[in-house]
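Preliminary data (for renewal application), SN-glycerol-3-phosphate complex.
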Amino acid sequence: WTPFDQPTLPADFLLIAHRGASAYAPEHTLPSYQLAYDLEADYIEIDLQQTQDDVLVAFHDETIERTTNGTGAVSDYTYEELKALDAGSWFNEAFPEQKQFQEEGIVRLEDIVDEFGKEVKYYIETKQPFTDGQLEGQLVQLLEEYGLLENVAVTRQVILQSFSEESLLTLHGLDPDIPLIHLYHFKKEPAELSADEFDRLASYASGIGVNQSALTRAFGDQAAEWELDLHVYTINTYSEAIDAYKKGADGVFTDNLLEFIDPLDNE
Ligand code: G3P
Ligand code: CA
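Predicted structure:
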């Protein structure tokens, strides 16, 4: 709901569907991404991990307890083993007021791009980068195979993100045209980077992702000075997005896309 007497977000402000439309469907499952598409997110966000048999899967935690009926690390299982797990029932139990989901499984990145092609834009996080760059290599190869990197600096069909500078440098080496976002979680708030750190970051990344609680106007001004995009996580109300915008954000990661739908658009 956008009150008429409140400021509104500009049309180019990015709404990034955090783990899909994850307030309304189990995160990282196909229904979650389908809903994000239906709700016209600018990007669908995918956390990426590698299975024991080197398959790229959409999954946030290093271990599988929270969102499946299994136990242990993602990297301890083959994709076939992970695929057999129930990745939806936890959501039904945690959110009984929401639509219920049956037999949702862990999906591969390939399944997601197969499903949506160029109909959506992808904002993919290398969650578990390995020092040998294998995950990054596989990721870039898959995106190339699906034609998602054609003229990517202009189309921004794909944005890649990581908390790991090493992973971002590997990706930059593989294809310097891919827009990269360096993620930070500033535990010691407010957000602060030195001029040298901004210089270094700007040499390979096109922007910064930052936790909402650490964002300040001064940090937003610095990001603008270095001509870096600034995306903020995780924001679930319109008023918080307005606050982030006023501090210099160009977009937000949200679980809650319905918060951003203007009721007048649907009349
Ligand atoms: O990728 C931005 C934001 O999602 C980082 O936090 O833990 O949800 O991956 P996390
Ligand atoms: Ca993420």
